[in-house]
Amino acid sequence: GLGEEGGTGINLFSLYPTDEPRVDELRDAAEHGRVWSGRLRALRADGSGYHEECALSPVKGAGGEVHSLVVVKRDVTREVEFEARLAQNQKLEALGTLAGGVAHDFNNVLTPILGYAELALNQVEANTRLHGNLSRILRAAERAKGLVDQILAFSRQSEDTRVALRFGELLQETEELLRASIPKRVRLAVRWDAGEDGVVGNPTQLQQVVMNLVTNACHAMEPEGGTVEIGGETVEVREPEPDLAAGRYLVLRVTDEGCGMPPEVQARIFEPFFTTKEVGKGTGLGLAAVHGIVKQHGGAIRVDSVVGRGTTFRVYLPLAGRADRVEERVGARETMPRGRGERILVVDDEIEVADFLAQTLETLGYRVEAVLSAEEAWQRFSRSPGAVDLLLTDQTMPGRTGLELARQCRERRPDLPVVLCTGYASAVATEELAAAGVAVLLAKPVSPRQLAAEVRRVLDGGKRP
Fold first, then answer.
1. Do residues 265 and 392 share a domain?
2. CATH number at residue 141
3. Deepest in the core among 235, 249, 349, 459, taking most CB within 10 A?
4. Strand (E) positions, 5-130?
5. Is position 274 within any domain?
6. Res 281 pLDDT > 70
7. Which residues touch 295 (CB under 8 Å, ≥6 apart)?
8. Distance (Å, rounded) from C-alpha 357 to C-alpha 385?
9. CATH code of the domain in which 350 resides
10. If you write DSSP's letter for every residue of 339-388 in order, what string do you get?
11. Whether pLDDT at 155 is above 60
12. Max avg pLDDT among 174-188, 328-342, 402-416
């Protein structure tokens, strides 16, 4: 950046920022006539920074005295950035591996919490304090399930389940979580004016959009704090735009009183790994994830920011059509499909999970035998294969997996219906399920309503791909 003549007469060490730690190594090598090479942060003529690879070699006379120094410098900024992104990807892969290992055990813990809470909720009168407390337990457990799903999304393509929902109700649940996590100096103001707020989307992903935008707003106001305002409105886009089709949209608005962003930063905020935060305070993935989720939902994001005054993000989401039935998130009590005395063999090495599954199925009118190992299940089944109408088994168990148990039982009785229940569904390939004759794969934590519907469907001859 100095040009052919621009470096003449310049002190070598003035080309580096004062806080670059390796300059002292370079200086020491130059003073003692040693060869040195390494990477440093350096300064261009205009004062901007870059990364360089520097090699220093002394030129010595016959007596060993240093006459001069030969310094070769090469700009390696792109290489350094690439290596940093590669390292970040490796960190994410490691997180995915960790998530996969933890998910099974964590979802096993959530299964009885969600299950027993829903069973109890169906047995108490509505509009009572007990009903309200059980509802809060259920919502908290569902949020925990959502957190597991978000972690798993880093390691695999998570199931993109979408439902018609009211965004205001989703925001109300998210607000409780936000108020418990934002800094004390930040005030959260929710002014939801959108009368029509039905959208079709993945509740966990849309909650992640709100969480990430508010978290970003809080960081922008550090350390003084301020107000983050969340609002909403319904708009109609009459003229199509490059990333937004004409139509009616719900607009989620998140505004902060932070430092704002110059245009050059705004142009890059949705790039993966781009962050203006100091090391250790941001991955550069939050807004990239928001952008990806919104695009997947057929929407778009707009950003207005003024340096020193703050930033407003507007998220456009298509409104649900009349044909979409909006999900009531405070669940209505629908009648669950019941059994007709069919005999079900339940297998799970976690006693709390096995007891929950057995109790739920018995309540629905099935005859249930629950065991805690694949070996015990095989012994019971092999004594009388015709006495089991359906096998409901966990996948990950000591000694033998659920798929291995299913294959073994179906070798003895090929028409046996099998339902596989697992805490980490993506670890089981579709081909393996088909080869073992599994009719349905249930991802833990499973609710009583879901369990009732799937078991009844399989027994009636239905099979979910």
1. no
2. 3.30.565.10
3. 249
4. 36-43, 49-60, 66-75
5. yes
6. no
7. 243
8. 21
9. 3.40.50.2300
10. --S-EEEEE-SSHHHHHHHHHHHHHTT-EEEEESSHHHHHHHHHH-GGG-
11. no
12. 402-416
**pTM for this prediction:** 0.51
Query: Which amino acid is residue 315, in one-letter code?
Result: V
Domain end position, chosen among 75, 110, 130 = 75
The gap from C-alpha 196 to its chain's centroid, in whole angstroms, comes to 28
> Does one domain contain both 56 and 90?
no
**Which residues fall within 8 angstroms of residue 341, CB to CB, at 6 or more apart?**
365, 366, 367
Q: Which two tokens stand for residue 174?
A: 């998210």
Strand partners, 374: none
End-to-end CA distance of the chain: 61
At 399, the amino acid letter reads G
Q: Are residues 95 and 134 in the same domain?
A: yes
DSSP secondary structure code for residue 28 in this structure: H
Residue with tokens 């107000």: 227
Same domain, 44 and 88: no
Domain holding 364, by residue range, is 343-459
Residue where one domain finishes, among candidates 75, 94, 110: 75
Within a domain: residue 389?
yes
Nearest to 160 by CA among 193, 120, 199, 206: 206
Give dist(CA 64, CA 180) in Å, integer.
69
Q: Map residue 204 onto helix, strand or coil.
A: helix
The number of beta carbons lying within 10 Å of the beta carbon of residue 141 is 22
- pLDDT at site 126: 86
Q: Considering only CA atoms, which of 357, 352, 361, 347 is closest in space to residue 416?
A: 347
**Rounded Cα gap, residues 438 and 410, in angstroms:** 10
Number of domains forming the structure of the chain: 3
- 166 with 224, same domain: the answer is yes
pLDDT computed for residue 180 by the predictor: 78
Hey, what are 394's tokens?
Answer: 């966990």
Determine the distance from the C-alpha atom of residue 234 to the mean position of all C-alpha atoms in its chain, rounded to a whole number.
28
- Whether the CB-CB separation of 300 and 311 falls below 8 Å is answered with no
Pairing of strands 440-443, 418-422: parallel
The reply to whether 261 and 374 lie within a common domain is no
Is residue 242 very low, low, confident or very high in pLDDT (cuts 50, 70, 90)?
confident
Residue 319 tokens, joined: 């409104």
Distance CA 97, CA 80 (A): 26
